[in-house]
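Revision sheet: structure tokens.
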Amino acid sequence: MAFPELSQKELESIGERVFENYGHTIAELGLLDKLIPRLKDRLTVTGREHFDAGIAKGKGVIAVTAHFANWELLGGWLALSGYPGSVVARRIYYEPYDRALVDVRAKMRLETLYRDDSPRRILRALRDNRVLGIVPDQDVDTVDGVFVDFFGRPAFTPIAPVRFAMASGAPLVPCFLIRENGRYHIAIEPPIQLIETGDREKDLVTNTQKWVSLQEKYIRQYPHLWVWNHKRWKSSPKTPQ
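Predicted:
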């Protein structure tokens, strides 16, 4: 669906590397105590000034990323680098697994907020001038969303990042962790320039499309680092949400 120009062999190779990425991610989280002290020697960053500028304005920063490489480690780097950080996560119904992930984030000085928490609690993190991490790249029918273009197909996409940015005045900053050859690079993009025409529904679609297009750019460049086994196009514009 996404790469019709590739051969079957090339597609299968990407598929295999997707699961290799999962293995790396699980190992990294399992060895987190050893990895944290070594991060500064194995990680480079571009665009950090975009976070610094957002924090300087005092309204917090909304960091929007994808389930790409080790997204948990991306949030951890932010918090370990001195940015007070919170992440909006899905509450996992197998409680021991959920608790384990919360504990992993706590080791990296990250606060966990849940997607079903009150929006006021989430906005409070921005009022406290924190970096708020959101990973909204999945088709979730229990959250508000809109259809935008993703790899040439309409994909139902959460509008929370744009909604929080418009409500709080916090900059919406896309960022991605890239893992290559045992090293990491964090790419922090300039803030999304939000369009506000007065037509709220249209603006939500336009602004959501902006960061989704950026996600697609990174996924095209590093397709093996994204979670292709999620049914990203399971909803149709013709299906009631």
